UniProtKB/TrEMBL annotation:
<dbReference type="InterPro" id="IPR001810">
    <property type="entry name" value="F-box_dom"/>
</dbReference>
<dbReference type="InterPro" id="IPR017451">
    <property type="entry name" value="F-box-assoc_interact_dom"/>
</dbReference>
<dbReference type="Pfam" id="PF00646">
    <property type="entry name" value="F-box"/>
</dbReference>
<dbReference type="InterPro" id="IPR006527">
    <property type="entry name" value="F-box-assoc_dom_typ1"/>
</dbReference>
<dbReference type="InterPro" id="IPR050796">
    <property type="entry name" value="SCF_F-box_component"/>
</dbReference>
<dbReference type="InterPro" id="IPR036047">
    <property type="entry name" value="F-box-like_dom_sf"/>
</dbReference>
<dbReference type="Pfam" id="PF07734">
    <property type="entry name" value="FBA_1"/>
</dbReference>
<protein>
    <recommendedName>
        <fullName>F-box domain-containing protein</fullName>
    </recommendedName>
</protein>
<feature type="domain" description="F-box">
    <location>
        <begin position="1"/>
        <end position="49"/>
    </location>
</feature>
Length: 380
C-alpha cells in the first residue's frame, strides 16, 4: 500500500488505529516497522492523542489482594468508574507490593522495594507490553523521595531521586544525594544542590506531576526561618527545584496527614482530613497554577460510620476518590456532598488511582524488554 499512497496519508490512517493494531503493523513490513518505531511518529501520535477531543478519559487503577497479587486495570471516567480494560501484570515481588510512583503519557513508573531498600525501578507501557528495568545507582533507603515525569522539551521521560543515607532527628543535618535518570540517555547522573536548604518528607513515593513539574509535600528547614511545609517541585526540562508556598494553616501540619493531588489536569490541590463528629476533608485548590494567592478551600463532609478517616486517592471532575479504612473505594461529590460506594475493594493502603493516556511510548526503545501473553499466561 505504501507504493501507492503518500506517507502523510498513511500516517493519518495509522493515527486512527487502536494501540494493539499499531503494534501488529510493525510486523507487516520493514517500511512500516521503521515508521512506527521512529521517535517522530511516536511523539506525533502522543500529541494527536493529547489534543484529540474524542479520546476516552481513562484512569489507571491498581488493587492488591491479601495473597500479594496486584491487579491493574483501566477505568472509564464515568459515574460508576466502570472497567475498560484489564492489564496483564508481568512482574513478581516476593516480599512486598510494588510502589506506583506515577503514570505519564502511557508509561507507568514502579519501584521494587526489598527490606525497605529500593532495588529497582521500572518504566512500563502495558498496552504495547514493553518495559525498561532500571537499577538505582545509589541504594536508597525509604528515607528518600522519588518523582517521575516528562520533559517535553527533550521528549524524554525522567526519574528524580533524593536519598538520605540516614535519618537524622535534626532536619538541617540531612544532606540528600540527588540523581536523575533519563530514558533517552539510559543512565543516571547527579543533580547538584543549588541552595543550602534541606528538605524532607514522610510520603516517600507520593508525588504529583503537572505542567512539566513533579511535586511533593515537603518539610523545608532553614536556620533563619525554621521548619515548615511547602510544595517542593522539580522542573523536568530545566532540571531545577522550585517552591510553592502552602496556605499558612498548613505550615506545621504533619506531611503524612496531607495528600497532594492533581486537580482537573490543570493545577494542584492539597487534601487534609479531620475527624470530629464526622469526617471532613479540607481541599485546598490552587485555582491558578503557581499563584499562591489563588489557593481556595473546598470542603467535603460526610458521616464517619465507624470507618475512621479515609485516604484521599485522587480527584476527577468534581469528585474526591477515597479509600476507606477497610479498603473500599468511595466517591464524594464536592458540590452535592453525597458519597457513593463504587463497590471496588483492595488491600488497604496499597490502592493507586491516576489518570492514564494511551500511547506507544517505548516502542522505539531497542533495549526495552518485550513480553507476550498466550492462553497459558505470560510467555517470553
Amino acid at each position: 500500500m505504501s507504493d501507492f499512497l503518500p506517507e502523510d496519508l498513511i500516517q493519518e490512517i495509522l493515527f486512527k488505529l487502536p494501540i494493539k493494531s499499531l503494534v501488529r503493523c510493525t510486523s507487516l513490513c520493514r517500511t512500516w516497522n521503521s515508521l512506527l518505531k521512529s521517535p517522530a511518529f511516536i511523539s506525533k501520535h502522543l500529541q494527536r492523542t493529547i489534543s484529540s477531543t474524542d479520546h476516552q478519559s481513562l484512569f489507571l487503577l491498581r488493587l492488591c489482594s491479601k495473597e500479594r497479587e496486584e491487579q491493574y486495570s483501566l477505568r472509564l471516567d464515568n459515574q460508576d468508574f466502570n472497567e475498560h480494560m484489564q492489564l496483564h501484570f508481568p512482574f513478581e515481588s516476593f516480599e512486598s507490593y510494588f510502589h506506583v510512583i506515577g503514570s505519564c503519557n502511557g508509561l507507568i513508573c514502579l519501584a521494587k522495594v526489598i527490606q525497605r531498600f529500593t532495588v529497582s525501578f521500572i518504566f512500563w507501557n502495558p498496552l504495547i507490553q514493553k518495559y525498561v528495568n532500571i537499577e538505582p545507582r545509589i541504594l536508597g533507603h525509604l528515607y528518600s523521595f522519588v518523582g517521575f515525569g516528562y520533559d517535553s522539551r527533550a521528549n524524554d521521560y525522567k526519574l528524580i531521586r533524593m536519598v538520605n543515607s540516614q535519618k537524622s532527628k535534626f532536619l538541617s543535618e540531612n544532606f540528600p544525594k540527588m540523581e536523575l535518570y533519563s530514558l533517552n540517555e539510559g543512565s543516571w547522573r547527579s543533580i547538584p544542590q543549588t541552595a543550602p536548604l534541606r528538605y524532607d518528607t514522610d510520603q516517600h513515593f507520593s508525588s504529583a506531576f503537572l505542567n512539566g513539574v513533579v511535586h511533593w509535600i515537603a518539610n523545608r528547614a532553614d536556620q533563619h526561618e525554621g521548619i515548615h511545609n511547602v510544595v517542593l517541585g522539580f522542573d523536568m526540562s530545566d532540571e531545577i527545584f522550585l517552591e510553592i508556598a502552602l496556605p499558612s494553616c498548613l505550615d506545621n501540619v504533619r506531611p503524612s496527614c496531607l495528600s497532594l493531588l492533581v486537580y482537573k489536569e490543570s493545577s494542584i490541590s492539597v487534601c487534609q482530613a479531620s475527624f470530629l463528629s464526622s469526617v471532613q476533608f479540607h481541599i485546598w485548590v490552587m485555582k491558578e497554577y503557581g499563584v499562591v494567592e489563588s489557593w481556595t478551600k473546598l470542603v467535603l463532609t460526610f458521616g464517619a460510620q465507624g470507618e475512621g478517616i479515609p485516604r484521599a486517592l485522587g480527584i476527577r471532575k468534581e469528585e474526591l476518590l477515597m479509600e476507606k479504612k477497610r479498603g473500599w473505594i468511595v466517591s464524594g461529590d464536592l458540590e452535592s456532598q453525597q458519597v457513593r460506594d463504587l463497590r471496588i475493594w483492595g488491600e488497604p493502603f496499597h490502592t493507586f488511582i491516576g489518570s492514564y493516556l494511551e500511547s506507544v511510548v517505548l516502542l522505539d526503545k531497542s533495549k526495552a524488554t518485550s513480553y507476550v501473553y498466550n492462553s497459558n499466561g505470560l510467555a517470553a
